[in-house]
Amino acid sequence: MKKIIESNKEQDTYDLGYELGQHAKPGQVFTLVGDLGVGKTVFTKGLAAGLGITEPVSSPTFTIVQVYDEGRLPFYHFDVYRIGDVEEMDEIGYEDYVYGEGVSLIEWANLIEEILPEHFTEIKIEKNLEKGFDYRRISICEF
């Protein structure tokens, strides 16, 4: 299944994340793909809010994973942009998170595709400057 959403402002991207967070189930894994500056953090903030998380959410670029426990489900936010080798994921307990009861969101998941679970939801965010500076094309695909 593939669904395309057109976002014309930051709030649209946030709202999509929020909606997905509200419906997320234990053990669900989202991957987030997109260039720098496309709105991955905006989407992630919406997803966290949809899970009931009220604390500030930021990209865990230097820590690889940030854990949020206060929502209706635990939220594990990964940013694997800076990993040098997929084996580094074992060191942070990747499988415990991804195969646990929380919701995982993995930014730059294409860098660790060989260890992604069999089933996940890919969120791909793309700009198209011809349609405006704030325009985003968001693809949601179930694997």
Low-confidence stretches: none
From the alpha-carbon coordinates, what is the Rg to the nearest angstrom? 14 Å
Helix and strand string, N-terminal first? EHEHEEHHEEE
CATH C-level name: Alpha Beta
State the end-to-end CA separation: 8 Å
Largest sheet: 7 strands, mixed
Mean pLDDT over all positions? 94
- The largest beta-sheet arranges its strands as 1-7-6-2-5-4-3
CATH homologous superfamily identity: P-loop containing nucleotide triphosphate hydrolases
Structural class: alpha/beta
What is the 3D form? Answer: globular
The CATH topology, please? Rossmann fold
Oligomeric description of these chains: single chain
Number of strands: 7
What's the structural domain tally? Answer: 1
Percent range for β-strand residues: 25-35%
Report helical residue fraction. Answer: 10-25%
- The CATH architecture comes to 3-Layer(aba) Sandwich
Number of helices: 4
Question: What does this molecule look like?
Answer:
This protein has helices at 10-23, 40-50, 88-91, 94-98; strands at residues 2-7, 29-33, 65-68, 75-79, 103-107, 121-127, 136-142. By secondary structure, the chain is of the alpha/beta class. Strands 1-7-6-2-5-4-3 form a seven-stranded mixed β-sheet. Strand 3 and strand 4 (75-79) form a beta hairpin. Helix 1 packs parallel to helix 2. 34% of the residues are buried.
